[in-house]
Design goal:
With about 280 residues, the chain is α+β, with helices and mostly antiparallel strands. It has helices at about 15-25, 40-45, 50-60, 115-120, 160, 165-175, 195-200, 245-260, and strands spanning about 65-70, 70-75, 80-85, 100-110, 130-135, 140-150, 180-190, 205-215, 220-230, 235-240.
């Protein structure tokens, strides 16, 4: 039996080709343009024409292209992406695109990975609830999120809530947990085989990774979350304020902190209709 190497990709070949073609639609191939012929694409990828047809079938099902007898395949629209605006307030973490659907994939008690234990300052045998959720947009997977939540909040959080509201809003409203601030890092990585299967992309496909640590009102790290977003279906929009405005905002924040105004729940209530992973 032939042994599979560590870089073996179990993703069907036509799905990998479909991902590549999808990234070209709207960038290399604009709306109204014609795709190369099936024979030309088959030669480029070194596969049979039948494999190319399967890949193009996926794009056609998604409404990105249309086949016309005797005219070839035309681009109808570019893939729709979801943009996240990064701002300073905790309330901004509650916003989520209305057309995104969320499903809980895993929910169990675990001993977190070493990196998570260090970040949350956990004891050697201290456990957390591992929540894994999949977000889909426009009928296709877009993001996989893994969160490590204190065990005492597990009985309060229902899967129904987690499928329709952000974890942050649930911690505020149902668990009565006051959050002081969050630290978030953004990086670009290549997806692992396990995550590739869930996101339906080839192994090594680019993903945007957001890693965030949330702190409670006493400044203790309480929640750690990583979100892996498909790079072909997600973007991040960052609003940059002038330097003087930033200084003013920092001064206001420092003044509120000195008055103790940031402890406890936020002044605005979280809407039950908002959806999200964070």
């Amino acid at each position: 039996m032939r042994r599979r190497g560590p870089n073996f990709d179990p993703t069907p070949l036509y799905l990998r080709i479909a991902s590549t073609l999808r990234m070209r639609v709207g960038s290399q191939w604009q709306v109204g343009a014609r795709l190369p012929t099936e024979s030309a694409l088959a030669a480029e990828f070194g596969v049979a024409i039948g494999t190319i047809r399967q890949a193009v079938d996926i794009l056609e099902t998604e409404g990105l292209v249309a086949r016309y007898q005797g005219k070839g395949t035309e681009v109808l629209r570019a893939p729709r992406g979801v943009g996240q605006q990064l701002k300073g307030s905790m309330q901004d973490l509650l916003s989520f695109h209305a057309e995104v659907t969320v499903k809980v994939l895993k929910r169990h008690t675990v001993l977190p990975p070493m990196e998570v234990r260090r970040t949350l300052a956990l004891g050697e045998n201290e456990k957390r609830i591992h929540l894994q959720r999949l977000a889909s947009f426009d009928g296709a997977p877009i993001a996989l999120t893994d969160s490590y939540v204190p065990i005492e909040y597990d009985r309060v959080l229902t899967n129904s809530d987690l499928n329709t509201r952000t974890l942050i809003s649930l911690l505020w409203t149902k668990c009565r947990l006051g959050l002081l601030q969050a630290e978030q890092s953004i990086s670009a990585q290549m997806v692992s085989p396990a995550v590739a299967r869930v996101l339906k992309v080839p192994v090594g496909f680019p993903v945007i990774v957001l890693a965030r640590t949330d702190y409670d009102a006493d400044g203790r790290p309480i929640l750690f979350t990583t979100c892996q977003y498909r790079a072909d279906r997600y973007r991040i929009d960052v609003t940059l304020a002038p330097v003087e405005r930033q200084r003013k905002n920092v001064a206001i924040s420092d003044a509120r902190l000195a008055r103790g105004g940031v402890k406890g729940r936020p002044a605005v209530s979280a809407s039950g209709g908002r959806r999200g992973l964070a």
